[in-house]
Amino acid sequence: MTSQNNFKITATETKGLNRSFEVVAGADYIAKKQEEELKKIGKTVNIPGFRPGKAPMSMLKQRYEKSVLGEVIEKVVETAISDVIAENKLTPALRPHVEIKDYKEGGDLTISMNMELLPEIAEISFDGIALNKQVYEVDSKEIDKAIERLAGNNKRPKELAADVKAENGSVVVMDFEGFKDDVAFPGGKGEGFELELGSGQFIPGFEDQLIGSKAGDNVTVNVAFPKDYHAADLAGAQTRFEVKVHAVKGMELPSIDDEFAKTLGLESLEKLRELLAEKIGQEYAHVTRNKLKKELFDALDKKCTFEIPSGMVKMEFDSIWQQVEQAIKAGEKLEKPEEELKQEYQAIAERRVRLGLFLAHTAKNEKLEVSREELSKAVYDQAMQYPQNAKQIFDFYREHPEHLAEMRGPILEEKAVDFIISKVTINEKKVSLEELMADDED
């Protein structure tokens, strides 16, 4: 019995991480809770002939007893769960599974309760763990290539001589008007429009027919609209466009100098080089860390041999397999038989749960915490991944601060990884870019 004699609790199974109980809530306790709910209702409902809160209990029971019973049973079950956990000093891995075994209105309530506990994790010695950290130093040639890519993305159109013919990649400045059955159709007209040939901006076949044109040319373009075109009256229709070419422009690369850097918001080319070196270095540092983490996890996986809750493994596996099923629906083909893949993903799920529990244990033991500043940075980083939706992301976390807790776990895990890395031996090895970016088959 609990200290308040609300429940009779009997342990029915103790095996590994599994615990099962039978819990009986007495009829008197349920009746008491039901009366409490009825009193709450009595304070708010209007019953003819009685002032609010003055209706007799007999009348409240007659009107509302059955309707509140479900809510009362729910609350009794929640209290039973809390009492069983507290009385037995348990730490469930997931919410306990509860079933009503026996209940008749006015009688005792008997429920069965099954749960899995979080495992007790013994301390692990990090002695003997040696990790190889790949180090790649960004060289000037790579920065040069990055600047060239930036320049390529910032090409500027430059008008060419009147006799220069348009080719793929040229920009044609034109007026155009579209006709269907010799009648101009709405939305088919434009003036001074700049079209890059080969961009796919217009319907298929249009841009190809402007290759070879030059300033002053009049070109008739015959094209069929796609059958799935959004405007039903043009879908699949044969049309004619009359085009007047005003000018042909070539795409010119900007000079790579201080002026180019200023167009990007930087004061000089040297500052641009410094910024790119830092950005590229951060990207490669991320690759280096991921490889180091994988090597660390491989080492920890051999040392972590504690039992893990099957319910947590199932949740992790289901999450992985759901992604596989979505990929199949999207048209991807399985590289291996389904059963073989399921066995592999089952092992991955077990590894993830085991290592996740160990990292959480390490964070708790070492009293690692996540600061408000770290949470704010995590929100900022997420928003910067989707700059077009940044405001909505900031607003969401401001209006729903409880969701910040979802970010706390991954940050804490990274802190636990950092702590463990600080305790193991790290052997640095300079590598080429090819070596750093080589895929690990495992």
Description:
β1 and β2 form a beta hairpin. The protein folds into three domains: 7-116, Alpha-Beta Plaits (2-Layer Sandwich), CATH 3.30.70; 156-252, Chitinase A, domain 3 (Roll); 267-437, Trigger factor, domain 2 (Orthogonal Bundle), CATH 1.10.3120.10. The strands form three sheets. Strands 6, 7, 8, 9 and 10 form a five-stranded antiparallel beta sheet that branches. The radius of gyration is 35 Å and the shape is extended. With 442 residues, it is of the alpha+beta class. The chain contains eleven helices and eleven strands. The model has no long low-confidence stretch (mean pLDDT 89). The chain has helices at residues 27-42, 57-88, 140-152, 258-263, 269-303, 310-329, 338-365, 372-385, 390-399, 405-423, 433-437; strands spanning 7-15, 18-25, 97-103, 109-116, 130-135, 156-159, 171-180, 183-196, 218-224, 238-252, 425-430. 45% of the residues lie in helices and 21% in strands. α1 (27-42) packs across α2 and α6 packs across α7 (338-365). The chain starts with 6 loop residues before the first strand and ends in a 5-residue tail after the last helix.
